[in-house]
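User: Just a sanity check before I run the rest of the batch. Below are the structure tokens for the first item. I only need the designed sequence back.
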């Protein structure tokens, strides 16, 4: 009977050691999984970015446009106090937002004149096409959402789904402002670049209709606090990566 007094503490001790070891192994496994998820995500994003660079051969503006949109969008998101994770997602989405243009005919992408209705319909498919291409990467769900919604308008007149207000994700509302500002201030085959002042006037004009008023206000504040932002971004010297 006395033997139980020796065996019981010993048994409890070994159970404790075993449970501790199991917890340690599980934590190590989780840590490794997180590291691998990050590496995998970075590699897949690099592959997708290579695809974006491929579109650059069709339309030489796509890569620099995406880089510039990212700098503006990250500046807005940071000024709005979004979390590091949200800002990272928005940056990734900006980098690939026009990926769907890979399916648009070259002569439409680079057409010097204005587009016919049929050509415009084709170009409008690019936000949906980009989302369809990226959808199999399940960990990019939030990026896919922003890519799909980046031409939605705050008043519900955008595409592809005609979403309005807060039904459009905050990332897509930010990107809409950054994307339009970058497009307006850049030279296109069919027009010269607009001045910063003229582009700001357009943002103000469509504040609350095409664009989320709050996002426009924050961006105007960012531009006011950084008067050289446009030149810095266009020279490719933006700080955000
Ligand atoms: Fe677009
Ligand atoms: Fe764009």
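Assistant: Here's the designed sequence for the first item:
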């Amino acid at each position: 009977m006395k033997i139980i007094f020796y065996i019981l503490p010993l048994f409890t001790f070994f159970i404790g050691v075993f449970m501790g070891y199991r917890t340690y192994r599980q934590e190590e496994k989780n840590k490794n999984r997180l590291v691998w998820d990050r590496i995998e995500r970075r590699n897949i994003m690099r592959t997708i970015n290579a695809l974006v660079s491929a579109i650059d051969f069709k339309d030489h503006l796509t890569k620099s446009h995406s880089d510039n949109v990212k700098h503006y969008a990250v500046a807005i998101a940071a000024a709005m106090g979004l979390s590091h994770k949200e800002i990272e997602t928005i940056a990734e989405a900006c980098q690939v937002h026009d990926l769907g243009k890979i399916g648009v005919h070259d002569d439409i992408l680079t057409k010097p004149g204005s587009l016919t209705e049929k050509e415009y319909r084709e170009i409008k498919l690019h936000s949906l096409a980009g989302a369809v291409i990226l959808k199999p990467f399940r960990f990019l769900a939030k990026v896919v959402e922003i890519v799909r919604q980046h031409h939605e308008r705050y008043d519900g007149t955008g595409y592809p789904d005609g979403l309005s207000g807060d039904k459009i994700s905050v990332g897509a509302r930010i990107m809409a402002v950054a994307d339009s500002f970058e497009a307006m201030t850049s030279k296109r085959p069919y027009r010269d670049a607009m001045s910063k002042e003229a582009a700001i006037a357009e943002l103000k004009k469509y504040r609350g209709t095409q664009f989320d008023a709050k996002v426009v206000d924050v961006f105007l504040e960012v531009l006011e606090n950084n008067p050289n932002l446009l030149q810095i971004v266009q020279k490719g010297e933006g700080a955000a990566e």
